[in-house]
Write a structure and sequence with these properties.
The chain is of the alpha/beta class. The chain folds into 2 domains: 2-130, Response regulator (Rossmann fold, 3-Layer(aba) Sandwich), CATH 3.40.50.2300; 142-398, P-loop containing nucleotide triphosphate hydrolases (Rossmann fold). It is 44% helix and 16% strand. The protein has 19 helices and 13 strands. It has helices at 17-28, 42-52, 68-78, 93-102, 114-130, 163-178, 194-197, 206-210, 218-224, 241-246, 249-262, 276-284, 296-309, 334-341, 353-362, 366-369, 374-390, 395-398, 419-428; strands spanning 8-13, 33-39, 56-60, 83-88, 106-109, 150-155, 182-186, 226-227, 233-235, 265-269, 287-292, 319-326, 345-350. The strands form 2 sheets. The chain has an 8-stranded mixed beta sheet, with helices on both faces. It has a 5-stranded parallel beta sheet with strand order 2-1-3-4-5, sandwiched between helices. Strand 11, helix 13 and strand 12 form a beta-alpha-beta unit. Helix 11 (249-262) runs parallel beside helix 12 (276-284). The longest helix is centred in the first third of the chain and has 17 residues, at 114-130. It is globular and about 65 Å long. Bound molecules: adenosine-5'-diphosphate and magnesium ion. Residues 163-164, 188, 193, 269 line the site of magnesium ion.
């Protein structure tokens, strides 16, 4: 269909003919979007995708023959370049989770309004253009898989980029979509504010683990981490800055490794600094979500960080560059960032200053209270993308169920590798 080359090609899959018509009509006046096919079940959807290679599929969940989740999986495996938006009614939350894990990039609650529909299509189209799709764990080979949980650090080389807010929301979103064991750690040991963002007051903090790194068993970890209503367990920063300063990089490493034994995902908020403890968090992390806002100082610092990543021993895959507070009105496009920084943009999170501030002041993350807000969805999509990339699928069976006794050996960091320069020198030699 050469005449559609410059448009976003969409396939609609829904078993109800009327819904297909409504969606098609809703998109009719969008100049940059064209519907190239309609499917009445999942099998047809997969076939049409192979035939037309659309950019985006609007996929209903409940369909005969092959449901939307199985069809999403098939498309992820067989039609590279096609992104899936899953559609469902409000009551199908559990299915939505599974669809996101199957590789869907976005979800819409039916019936979506026209603006929302077109916006979502453009959004996932951009995501598709921005980076390779990771789904169903296809990116990870069996050899790389371990039984340990995964550590996800949220970092930015520019303060105020949203690390704390994104870490908290991501932890909750990971819990919502995977229902695995999720911990949220305040890695900002001196000015930690995860407790405020999650509205948690407790006297147990990371100090209680750092001081007992030789007996970090399930019981101790469960005693010190604070349960949040979302079922995420939170490890708070010390209440005063002196005790935060006293935690050593080795202790921090041991605490994180200990948490890895008890949780499937450990999300760590970090401070903006190239100091030893922050670098330790980045070292042990399986993925670093690098947040960048569309401001020149932030772009400059992220570019610098990406250049340091190689010498620090962080692979390209380990870094997931994410634009936060993204707003098309700022006139900076993801593609131009990518060519400047020479790193692909994995995802974007929209800008919602008012809602974010309200959520902060209420102590309730956006993904809990405003799940359908576009920014909450962006974060859910990022959580799904990260989970897919890490795929700890089979970790479950091997985990110590309750009172595990796994302890962690503390490997001291050589004196010569302290500090950013020390590290760069040792990594090089
Ligand atoms: N996607 C977003 N849209 C609008 N404001 C945001 C977004 N993410 C974060 N913010 C705001 O940015 C500010 C800094 O966020 P914070 O998480 O404290 O950043 P950091 O931990 O990186 O210093 C907060 O006021 C927060 O509400
Ligand atoms: Mg912060």
């Amino acid at each position: 269909m050469a005449e559609h080359d410059d448009k976003i090609k969409v396939i609609i899959a829904d078993d109800v003919a009327e819904t297909r018509e409504i969606l098609e009509k809703a998109l009719y006046f969008e100049k940059d979007i064209v519907v190239v096919g309609k499917a009445a079940n999942g099998r047809e959807a997969v076939q049409l995708c192979k035939q037309h290679q659309p950019d985006v599929v609007l996929m209903d969940i409940n369909m005969p023959e092959l449901d939307g989740i199985a069809a999403t999986e098939a498309i992820m495996a067989q039609v590279p370049g096609t992104q899936v938006i899953i559609m469902s009614v409000q009551s199908e939350q559990e299915y939505l989770r599974r669809a996101m894990l199957a590789g869907a990039r976005e979800y819409l609650i039916k019936p979506p309004d026209t603006d929302e529909l077109a916006r979502s299509i453009r959004h996932v189209y951009k995501l598709g253009a921005a980076g390779p799709r990771l789904a169903g764990g296809a990116a990870e080979t069996a050899a790389q898989r371990t039984d340990q949980g995964k550590i996800i650090a949220v970092f930015s080389p520019k303060g105020g980029s949203g690390c704390t807010v994104v870490a908290a929301n991501m932890a909750v979103a990971l819990k919502q979509i995977t229902n695995k064991r999720v911990a949220l750690v305040d890695g900002n040991l001196v000015f930690g504010d995860v407790g405020v963002v999650m509205n948690i007051v407790a006297n147990k903090t990371i100090i209680d683990l750092a001081s007992r790194v030789h007996d970090l068993d399930a019981q101790l970890i469960s005693d010190v981490t604070v349960p949040h209503a979302s079922q995420v367990r939170v490890l708070l920063a010390p209440p005063d800055s002196q005790s935060g300063e006293a935690i050593t990089p080795d202790q921090l490493r041991a605490v994180l490794e200990g948490l890895r034994n008890q949780f499937d995902y450990v999300v760590v908020d970090t401070q903006t600094a190239y100091e030893d403890r922050t670098l330790t968090i980045l070292d042990v992390a399986d993925r670093i979500i690098v947040l960048m806002t569309l401001e020149l100082p932030a772009i400059k610092n992220v570019k610098q960080f990406c250049e340091l990543a190689g010498p620090l021993g962080y692979s390209d895959d380990k870094l997931m560059l994410v634009l936060n507070k993204a707003d098309s009105r700022l006139g900076i496009r993801a593609e131009s960032i990518e060519s400047q920084i020479r790193h692909k943009v994995s995802a974007q999170i929209g800008n919602a200053a008012y809602e974010m501030t309200l959520a902060l002041n209420q102590g309730v993350p956006l993904v809990i209270d405003r799940r359908n807000h576009p920014v909450a969805r962006d974060i859910v999509a990022l959580a799904a993308l990260t989970a897919n990339a890490l795929n700890p699928a089979q970790a479950e069976a091997a985990k110590p169920g309750g009172a595990g006794t796994a302890t962690v050996a503390v490997t001291p960091v050589a004196e010569s590798s302290r500090g950013l320069f020390g590290r760069l020198l040792t990594k090089r030699s």
